[in-house]
Amino acid sequence: MRVVIQRVTEASVKVDGKIVGEIHKGLMLLVGIDENDEKHDADWLVQKILNLRIFGDENGKLNLSVLDMNGEILCISQFTLIADYKKGNRPSFIKAAKPDQAIPLFDYFKNELKKSQLRIESGIFGADMKVSLINDGPVTILMDSQTKQ
After folding, report:
1. 125-149 pLDDT, tens per residue?
2. I need a surface site. Which of 17, 31, 53, 115 has the fewest CB within 10 A?
3. Which residues are catalytic?
4. Would you tell me how many other CB atoms lie within 10 Å of the CB of residue 123?
5. What is the pTM of this model?
6. Which residue in 33, 19, 127, 37 sits closest to 74, CA to CA?
7. Largest pairwise CA distance in the chain
């Protein structure tokens, strides 16, 4: 799984002009699921993301996690994170998990995040989504469960 983590002051996602998910201060996660991903990939990412210290403390140092500041999380499925662009100029998405595998794993990922008792919102898997956010910092981090980086 690949996740783009963005620290935000606000973020929302619309489908057909209607807001289906919206948060204030916290994290917006773009989540790509590879055909080889399993629950242990989601488990590793959930722990890393919830404990990632990318929010400022009283001295402005990045010492607080989303848990520490009782933030919110918006999860957006994004198969394009699994793009293979080595050949030519048109990316291939053949390694992205098919919906029958990706949807249950994406739901598992969100449910594991919800165990934190934080407010977790999401878009609609496979929908044409319009995402808006105000990136705070900006702070943007890429995590990959396959490489553990």
Report:
1. 999 999 999 999 999 999 999 888 7
2. 17
3. 78-80
4. 22
5. 0.94
6. 19
7. 49
